[in-house]
Amino acid sequence: MDVENVKVDDNDVKKVLLGYLVHNCFKETAEAFIASTEMNCSADFSMDIDRRKPIYNHVMGGEPLKAIDLTNGVAPGLLLDNKDLHFDLLTLHFIELVRSRNAIGALEFAQRELTPFGKEKHYVDKLQDCMALLAYSEPETSPLFSLLSVDYRQNIADMLNRALLDHGKLPSYTSMERLLQQFTLVSQRLQQEQGGKDLHASFTLRTFLA
């Protein structure tokens, strides 16, 4: 098959881009993209974004308890069925209390909400890391600083967003992500066939989209 002569359908490209915008709750950009390309699209995507975006924003804003409340309202049972995600949201609230230097509040919250998770070995290491934050006067500069990073919030926000999409019977990964994953696999295979020679710099989505 002559790859260089394969024609890419313009409508397929538009669908990939729109899927990425909708997945990441870029409502205004998606609406502008639809208008400029004159795509035929269901209005349901707008309602879906309105349902997910406030939840995503609460996590990114350091308000995971509000995200939990909204999630329970729009997707009943989701967090009951996804205990790991629920745990991550609760520990994020603990971390936010530590960030605000509310050690007493953090301890009270941990005793009330996190103690039950300590009975399961799966959660012990993470709980220990969270509790260890209390030992530092400046947790942002401690060896556990990554727990207070924007990237940590982002990871939890993305996981919750995917869970909400899956709960709504929508794809939890975009076509763009799948294409990039395929690109990575092909690049790795080509590198192996060339005897391990580094043909390309290490691929990441962040650098690809930069």
Automatic annotation (TrEMBL):
The lineage of its organism: Eukaryota, Viridiplantae, Streptophyta, Embryophyta, Tracheophyta. One of its GO terms (cellular component) is nucleus. Pfam families: CTLH. This is CTLH domain-containing protein. One of its GO terms (biological process) is proteasome-mediated ubiquitin-dependent protein catabolic process. SMART domains: CRA, CTLH. Residues 48-105 form the CTLH domain.
